[in-house]
Specification:
The chain is α+β, with helices and mostly antiparallel strands and 422 residues long. It is built from 14 helices and twelve strands. The strands form three sheets. The protein has a five-stranded mixed beta sheet. It has a four-stranded antiparallel beta sheet with strand order 9-12-10-11. A three-stranded mixed beta sheet has the order 3-2-4. Helix 6 links the parallel strand 7 and strand 8. The two termini are 48 Å apart.
Length: 422
Amino acid sequence: MDKRERVIFHIDVNSAFLSWEAVYRIRHLGGSTDLREEVSAVGGDMAMRHGIILAKSIPAKKYHIQTGETIVEALRKCPNLTLVPPNYNLYEKCSAAFMEILRQYSPDVEQYSVDEAFLDMSGTEGIWGDPQSAAARIKDQIRDTLGFTVNIGISENKVLAKMASDFQKPDRVHTLWKDEIQEKMWGLPVNDLFFVGRSAAKKLLNLGIQTIGDLACTEPALLKSHLKKQGEVIWAFANGKDVSVVQSEPPANKGYGNSTTIAFDVTDASAAKLVLLALAETVGTRLREAAVRAEVIAVGIKSCDLNYSSHQMTLGNPTNITSEIHKSACRLFDELWEGAPIRHLGIHTSRIRDGADMRQIDMFDNTDYEKLGKRDAAVDRIRRRYGIDSVKRAAFLGSPIDHMSGGISREKRTVDYRKIKI
């Protein structure tokens, strides 16, 4: 193979959550069963209304079990499905170890998600050899050191590398150079293309576009008329065009938010506002940790019949103060809620500004924002040192509502293995 100007790897952990759980059980708990070889899946807690499949084993695919479907649906397909609870603390440790190995091979590593990353390997042939040899070395080191397997896709750009890593699994290296896309990619169903979701796939099928090759040969103007900007993007992807670069430094967040599915239907405003206070705690903490402030606050409500609505407001001054976020969220909630039982609540922020407090003085507002900011900062320091439960608002004492809600819930962060047969 001729030396190429750019060489991009996409590394994807095979059945990540399930693989990490399997390795932990075998290596650290003395387990004898490998979940990766069983018809098994990682699933949320139905009692907490997080009952969906988060990851599945390769044998589970034979029963058409899919990530994102409900546990009820999965058990209907396979009553003997082995279900294990999620353990996000474990996943974060495995992910960190995985990324540490990748950084041994290139300074340009972009963590794309907890279980996948891009590497810019351009110009490293003199150190690690040709791309396929380097990829095989990385793959084998991860397997031999950490105990789980990965797929690695190789190409000149990120989108083709990602497509290549989805080819035959597990524990494989695949190339998808631009001169290979007709042979290896164009025959695949159009919904296999990156950035083509269910809605877009349905529109494409209605246009008679069934394969990625069909899409590549369609006039971009036609695609744009039906899919707008997305049509141009997926046409470029189908033709192997992608100019994005591997970003070793993640771009600044355009917004911060948290939401939570509540374990019971909320039917009164006071309980809903307590949930919003818990969400304001976590959103405010994240904003302060990033040394930024938000100018727009939004509240989202999902009712028990899964209808979703949201409402937002622009603040007079950007803020990261918990009580100010909560006050705005409550105002939005009062304007939005029509009384239907609530299943899910969220607070989201946008128009993120740097942390400089350039608050405009309001002669009718006597609130001491400097004092509130110092109080939040002190609470943050205590929680970082002694844990998030070291300081709790009195309003949450005796309440079933977690005082720091949103993001990954507590029951997904740890597992009591003493109660589980390994």
